[in-house]
Amino acid sequence: MTNIHCQTKYDWYQTEEFVFIAIRQKGLSSADCSVAYDGYNLTVSAHDQVIFSAPLCHPINKESITLTCTPSKIEVKLKKITGERWASLSVEEEEKRPSVSTKNWNVIEKEAENEEDSSDVQSLFHQIYKNADEDTRRAMIKSYTESCGTVLSTNWKEIGAKTTEVKPPDGLEFRKE
């Protein structure tokens, strides 16, 4: 938060019509708090001390600002002028967001290919499925699904004719929950 001045923690959320800012400040009443909006900057004060100040990302209806104090927080309700979704509460937060992804997708793709080349069992099954014909794929899906993940077969003639039974590893038992 660069220029958002807030002495306490806050959260914000929005609906189609409103933006809500919840400032965590205990023990204040509505008489202790005030809110001001100058068309750009929103400021919340308590006992003549600024506890929250931020340049808002979008304009709001100045006449519809509501301030509510509860024992644990101050909630400011702001009516949006337009019904658009706000990506961030303040201008500074929006400026910090990168507009373009900085990831090098070629490097990520090569890493993914290298992971596929690894010799673990999961990648072996992935390669078998990827390079298999339709009957083999069907057999793999049917056997794995019907056996609750305990059997994997590539023989459609054997698997297609019957229901695959659950076969847990030796020393373990299958419990259906």
TrEMBL record:
Taxonomy, superkingdom: Eukaryota
Domain CS residue range list: 5-90
A molecular function GO annotation: protein-folding chaperone binding
InterPro entries for the chain: CS_dom (IPR007052), HSP20-like_chaperone (IPR008978), SGS_dom (IPR007699), Sgt1-like (IPR044563)
Cited Pfam families: CS (PF04969), SGS (PF05002)
Record-linked PROSITE patterns: CS, SGS
CDD domains given in the database record: p23_CS_SGT1_like
Domain SGS per the UniProt entry, residue ranges: 91-177
PANTHER family: PROTEIN SGT1 HOMOLOG
Name of the molecule in the record: Suppressor of G2 allele of SKP1
Organism (species): Acrobeloides nanus
